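Hi V.,

Quick status before I head out on leave. The structure for the redesign project is tokenized and pasted below; the design run finished overnight.
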């Protein structure tokens, strides 16, 4: 293939690669109930580039689709920690946790 065509194809491919950045993510996130779910989903959804955020109450698993041109898993994880919820091995923000309604304090009470 001649050099000019190769270069042209390379240039044309760049936007395709740049926009094909959506990826699924999942994290283990502690929580108790529907209110926890709302807080977790809200914390993640406020980040630009996060869509389809959800949290499975029985599995304690958070899932979302992220546009990795705009954000990343680490940013989402930090937002959920800030809301007071434990993510994977990291402990959620204590101050935010202490402000949760009593029924949502998953470290002390469980609805399972
Ligand atoms: Cu709750």
């Amino acid at each position: 293939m001649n050099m000019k065509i190769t270069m042209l194809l390379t240039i044309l491919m760049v936007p395709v690669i740049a926009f094909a950045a959506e990826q699924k993510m999942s994290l283990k996130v502690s929580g108790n109930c529907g209110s926890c779910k709302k807080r977790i989903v809200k914390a993640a959804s406020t980040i630009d580039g996060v869509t389809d955020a959800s949290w499975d109450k029985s599995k304690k698993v958070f899932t979302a689709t992220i546009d990795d041109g705009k954000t990343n898993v680490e940013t989402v994880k930090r937002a959920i920690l800030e809301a007071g919820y434990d993510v994977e091995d990291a402990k959620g923000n204590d101050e935010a946790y202490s402000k949760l309604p009593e029924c949502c304090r998953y470290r002390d009470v469980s609805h399972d």
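Above is the designed sequence. Residues 22-104 form a domain with the Alpha-Beta Plaits fold (CATH 3.30.70.100).

G. will cover questions while I'm gone.

Best,
W.
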